[in-house]
Amino acid sequence: MNVLKKLAAAAFLSLGLSSAAHATFIPGTYVTTFTPYTHTFTYAQPGNTKIDWVRLSLFVSDPIDYLPWTTTQEVLTVKADGLLVDTISNISAGGKAYTYELAPDLLSDGKLAVSFSLGCNRGWFGSCALQDAWLNSVDITVETSPLAVPAEVPEPATLLTLGAGLLGLMASRRRRS
């Protein structure tokens, strides 16, 4: 019966069954040149699992670009735990979805700080044109899989019994010849 349980567990693990966790913060965050935004996601990793991948998904738009005289050339910088993920240029009024695969070790401490900031394009006469963007949604997806169950190591008495049995077979074979 114990062998059947082990086979069932091995089959379960070999199927690659995994789970995903989502963490989303409230959409509708307005970012300007002078007001960057940072959000820290927290993730509690289930026991006996490993993180396979982390995906950052966001949808960004610039609703002010609907007015023809307010079109600006935004440069949105996206960082995860202080590391540059992407620089998005020329955000449209209709918006666009972006997806990034992040290194699983960024969540090793259970936290992931995602920050968004806008650069300043120098306008006429060296003035700083105000840039803005709307973070319509930001989503973190974490995919985990169970850790492999280590194989059982036979105890010394089992090995001793097996060895004695093999020696007995060898001895009985020598007696016959």
Question: How do the helices and strands line up, and which of them pair or pack?
Answer:
Elements: H1 2-14, E1 19-25, E2 29-32, E3 37-42, E4 49-61, E5 75-80, E6 83-89, E7 96-102, E8 111-118, E9 132-146, H2 156-176
Antiparallel strand pairs: 1-9, 2-9, 3-8, 4-7, 4-9, 5-6, 5-8
Protein name: PEP-CTERM sorting domain-containing protein
Pfam families: PEP-CTERM
Keywords: Signal
How would you describe what is shown here?
By secondary structure, the protein is α+β, with helices and mostly antiparallel strands. It has one domain (17-176): Jelly Rolls (Sandwich), CATH 2.60.120. Helix content is 19%, strand content 41%. It is built from 2 helices and 9 strands, in the order αβββββββββα. The protein has helices at residues 2-14, 156-176, and strands at residues 19-25, 29-32, 37-42, 49-61, 75-80, 83-89, 96-102, 111-118, 132-146. The strands form 2 sheets. Strands 1, 2, 4, 7 and 9 form a 5-stranded antiparallel beta sheet that branches. Strands 3-8-5-6 form a 4-stranded antiparallel beta sheet, with no helix packed on it. The longest helix has 21 residues, at 156-176. The model is unreliable at 7-16 (pLDDT under 50).
Features:
Jelly Rolls, 177 residues, rod-shaped, signal, 2 helices, 5-stranded antiparallel sheet, Ice-binding_C, PEP-CTERM sorting domain-containing protein
